[in-house]
Amino acid sequence: MEWLNAEEKDAWTGLVSLLLLMPGRLEAPLQQESGLSLFDYLVLSHVSEAPDRTMRMSELAHLANGSLSRLSNVVKRFEQRGWVVRSPDPDDGRYTVAFLTDEGYEVVEAAAPTHLRTVRQFVLDPLSAADRQALTRIAAKLSVTIPPP
Amino acid sequence: MEWLNAEEKDAWTGLVSLLLLMPGRLEAPLQQESGLSLFDYLVLSHVSEAPDRTMRMSELAHLANGSLSRLSNVVKRFEQRGWVVRSPDPDDGRYTVAFLTDEGYEVVEAAAPTHLRTVRQFVLDPLSAADRQALTRIAAKLSVTIPPP
DNA sequence: ACTGTTGACTTCAAGCGTGAAGTCAATGGA
DNA sequence: TCCATTGACTTCACGCTTGAAGTCAACAGT
């Protein structure tokens, strides 16, 4: 088995730093100002953009890039805070839908500027347009190889 | 505050998928075959490459992209398994050094092929050389903006 | 020489994520 | 019609990470 050449090692080392360090950086402002993790924010954000602010749990887990188990735990917390209501899908009782309450909407609305500022500061602004396009392309290639959850 | 345009959103969406999904993918084979997380492997790997297989904890935390707190907990586990020995640095008692035992070396040696195969499969092989160089460049730009821990 | 400060590191305690196990509704086959 | 299967989802229990608090050695100032 062949070890990494210099170019490969640079790419891998860069990526692993990104993977291990960037989440914490993105979360810190959100956590401090809104008490939300990045995943929390993504969940709230996606369901806030859904028709009638209602989305199936399975779809939500997929959009927020998390497992159903993780989502269930998170949404349970949100439900206890009155931000989300879960109920069986009227169209098919096998599914569960999550509905974002007005209170939950206010939470994500209040957190959005912080989130946006953080994303710009730590991700978008340091990169050129070409870098951003490359990042989009690379992420797409790497996602294709990721087996469905 | 201006919301993301399409290009920015694609880059951001791609990155966040990468950040949330890739770690799990990289870890699964390691976890199954060696019982190691990615961070576990990085810690063992870096100290295995140090002179005399000995490295200061602070340096090790930096190289493995983790906090001192996280590293301390991980190395404590390793110490209990006989893979690592911690002792005060003879040159300066304020520091602690981690030494990789023969047993610990065997663990990282045995895990390396799995790790390498996984990195190739999920990161390097799906990308062109240009992509890998772009990834290196992008990661460097994004790391520069990350404040020191 | 004494002591406050600083930085490295460990420990604590709480919250979170994970895989496994369990529950339930709908489907499909006999 | 019955029931095994399938897939969505929840819960459980354990291990891990985190930020805060605590400990210690060395340094710097008086």
TrEMBL record, chains A, B:
PROSITE patterns according to UniProt: HTH_MARR_2
All residue ranges annotated as the HTH marR-type domain in the record: 12-144
SMART domains reported in the protein's UniProt record: HTH_MARR
InterPro entries, per the entry: HTH_MarR-typ, MarR/SlyA-like, WH-like_DNA-bd_sf, WH_DNA-bd_sf
Protein name as catalogued: MarR family transcriptional regulator
Organism: Lentzea pudingi
